[in-house]
Amino acid sequence: MDLGESLEQAVIREVREETGLDVAEPRLVDVVDDVSLDEKGAVKYHFVIVDYVVKVVRGVPKAASDAEELEWVPFSEVEEYDLTRSFRAFFKRNRRKLEHH
Asked: CATH number of the domain that 24 lies in?
């Protein structure tokens, strides 16, 4: 997020920067804590991930320079991919909600 930017503004900007898509109407889906521990059990990282669903307005999906590719995946195939632990948990918890958007 940029200083003074709302979460919704950040979602719209980040999606444009990361995918080339213009989106609108960001709606909050879930907030996820992701805590990683080191070998001694101390907290190494603690991320708070705020997940939104958006409406694509225009654009052609294109991966940003920090990603190899960008791909639309059918809901029935999502869990076949190599997902992060936090995304897999998020997807399982919110699948029904996401399918109806």
From this structure: 3.90.79.10
> Is 27 within 8 Å of 101 (Cβ atoms)?
yes
In a domain, 45, yes or no: yes
CA distance 16 to 39: 37
Mean pLDDT by 10 residues, the chain (101 residues): 95 95 96 92 94 95 86 90 90 88 68
What is this structure's pTM? 0.80
For residue 42, give the amino acid letter.
A
Query: Strand, coil or helix: what is 1?
Result: coil
86 phi-psi bin (left φ>0, alpha ψ -120 to 50, beta other): alpha
| Token pair belonging to 64 | 């940003």
